[in-house]
TrEMBL record:
Keywords: ATP-binding, Hydrolase, Iron, Iron-sulfur, Metal-binding, Nucleotide-binding. SUPFAM superfamilies: Fe-S cluster assembly (FSCA) domain-like (SSF117916), P-loop containing nucleoside triphosphate hydrolases (SSF52540). The keyword Protease does not apply. It comes from the Bacteria. This is Iron-sulfur cluster carrier protein. It comes from Bifidobacterium minimum. Homodimer.
Amino acid sequence: MTDADERTRAIEGDVLDRLARVIDPELGRSVTDLGMITGVKARPSKDHPDEVDLTVHVELTIAGCPLSRTITDQITGAVASYPGAHLTPHIEVSTMSADKLADLVASLKAERRRNPFTKDTSRTRIFAIASGKGGVGKSSVTANLAATLAALGYNTAVIDADIYGFSQPTLFGVHQQPTNVDGMLMPVVAWGVKLISIGMFAGSERAILWRGPRLQRSLDQFLSDVWWGEPDVLLLDMAPGTGDMAISVAQALPNAELVIVTTPQIGASQVAVRAGLVALQVPMRVCGVVENMSWFEHRGERLRIFGEGGGRRVSEQLTTALGVDVPLLAQLPLETDIREIGESGRPVVLDQSGALADTPLASEFASLARRLMGC
């Protein structure tokens, strides 16, 4: 073997090691571990003797993979930044055979076999965002909290468990269905958040007419048939009240923690207390209370449009009833931007680049996120 051959072999081995750090954004695994790299070939450039042409053969899981550009860009970056030589990357992309894909999916499912969030090894914090009634802004709180957590560096996922009133796809600007990899669904990623919702399948104009058993099955499928990877935090946008879905979540995710959303007025806070009292009947901890629409800022004055004190009342009543401290975690203002920007498909706490916005509201959500992750 010539010195040139030894050099190219060494480069090929080094590059393969570097590619082990390239992570498939949907599966959360190294592209080498997933068998997506089928060959690395180095050869001296004919036109530039000091340079090396390096070809990487990549097999994607499915044809037209929506994140193929992301994967190939990461591979190109790993090759181009190789410090030992000047490499010119050439990425050749194809698709896995049906048999290879089936084997990969089978191996991934074998790791799951059941709801991954109830395993002893799971480190995912799970927060069920609940309310006693609709119209208190529970879904917008969920979306902006999730976007904030992602912007703070947490691997964040959201399940839109409000089967009848799903709104997370709209709030995140999602219009596509999840990718189906041989029967295993990949959550849609928007603004750094992994998301699944029945609205991605049913369409936003269709009514959902489901009863208890089918609701339970939909949640089981969201937990077990979707490849979540290992998120740091999972938020569930719950249906209002204490119906079937609340019971299903308690059964499927006994390690979930409740966050109760209310508005200041007495009517909302009274029913919010009932949502928190679910913890007396199911093994769920109430982490705290968020008061939404606490005031409206007008010419330097805070107008208490919906009254005041609702969040404090819920906090105090739940603390007494449950015998544990249930703090008031945050009081969030009523802002028109929450609706206008949210309906455009971008959580209001983010700027257009996806970074945390430099606004008082974004700071409030950042404080809320840190309190939750620290509680």
